[in-house]
Amino acid sequence: MSQKLRVGILGGTGMVGQRFISLLENHPWFEVVTIAASPRSAGKTYEDAVGDRWKMQTPMPEAVKKLVVMNVNEVEKVAAGVDFVFSAVDMTKEEIKAIEEAYAKTETPVVSNNSAHRWTPDVPMVVPEINPEHFEVIKFQRQRLGTKSGFVAVKPNCSIQSYAPVLTAWKEFVPTTVVATTYQAISGAGKTFKDWPEMMENIIPYIGGEEEKSEQEPLRLWGKIEDGVIVKAQSPLITCQCIRVPVLDGHTAAVFVSFDKKPSKEELIDRLVNFKGLPQELNLPSAPKQFIQYLEEDNRPQVKMDVNFENGMGISVGRLREDTVYDYKFVGLSHNTVRGAAGGAVLCAELLKAQGYIQAK
To answer: Order of strands across the sheet with 70-71?
Structure first.
């Protein structure tokens, strides 16, 4: 009898759903037993429902090929067979909010990759190395939902992963102003070059809603729980531009920072390479041993060489140098569909299990 927790993937046929499924193959704690998707996929085997739309570079895991896809809208039925779910559903924001809360009310924890609940005041939005204490807001959310074990937890936008951890490592020097430009991969839009040939040799200087998320979500990560809700931090002041570039996986950020207490370059690099969090202390299965690496070469980080650092769960930083307008500038790189999406959610679920928030039903 397997001791693994039984996992459902909501929205399992899309790109992030596929990434969840590939990351959870042979996971020591979790086993995918249920895949739910839209009514048009329901009733087919997962293999048939996905067809020629498998977007991962590794083959579809054998264990899921013959699973019969369930209708994601049949909440009670899907929830009955799982201990918790990952959510990657493709719906409107209001529909996502409603369906994730509906699952939570069946006493099924929901760990979501979606943006719908990122600003719900009692829903924790967590990068486990940065703000694991925000999971404490779950007790207030359960009071609102009327649940004993059900809740919704989310991870933040993929675009901030290449610089928010860096700024967190430097918080003792009090960053005051941040200017970031992100160069974002097409998989962030759920696409490959086969789906989106017009992105070849092209740059699009606009990604809908992305700049506001990139400016505001780090402030929520650094916020505090007050009176049962998360109140965002007021500083630093962050301004962003987000650009779609012809790269499959990997979001790169070019960032300028000013500090209240100006550090030396050596101090900044020391804080990066020694930055650890609860996932490293607890040795969680998906946790990178080295969360942030610093690369000395002038031409790093590069997507082709560095995006899979620590199996895509680590952050790569380079080109740290003093600036003539701000104090320092640097380049950061993160894997947008691993650390930035499904992998970040899996790490959240591992920490939630380790802390007793997610248990076998």
So the answer is: 70-71, 30-37, 5-10, 84-87, 110-112, 152-154
pLDDT digits (tens, 9 = 90+) for 48-63: 999 999 999 999 999 9
Cα–Cα separations (whole angstroms), residue 53 to 12, 45, 47, 106, 142: 12, 14, 10, 31, 37
Catalytic annotation on 158? Answer: yes
Domains in the chain (CATH in brackets) are 5-157+342-354 (3.40.50.720), 160-335 (3.30.360.10)
Model pLDDT, residue 174: 98
Single-letter amino acid code for the residue at 175? P
Q: Is the pTM of this model over 0.90?
A: yes
Separation of alpha carbons 228 and 27, rounded Å: 34
Which residues share a beta bridge with 315?
Answer: 292
- Of 117, 134, 158, 348, the active-site residue reads 158
Active site residue 240: no
The C-alpha angle with vertex 40 and arms to 35 and 42, in degrees rounded to 5, equals 35
- Name, in order, each residue with C-beta under 8 angstroms of 350's C-beta and a sequence gap of 6 or more: 29, 128, 279, 284, 285, 286, 287
Cα–Cα distance measured from residue 213 to residue 164, given in angstroms and rounded to the nearest whole number: 12
**What Cα–Cα distance (Å) separates residue 227 from each residue in 168, 170, 230, 231?**
24, 28, 8, 9
In whole angstroms, what is the distance from residue 340 CA to residue 15 CA?
A: 13
Burial of residue 279 (number of CB atoms within 10 Å: 0-12, 13-18, 19+): buried
For 177-231, how does the pLDDT look when each residue is reduced to its tens digit (9 = 90+)?
999 999 999 999 999 999 999 999 999 999 999 999 999 999 999 999 999 999 9
Catalytic entry in 240, 251, 335, 348: 251
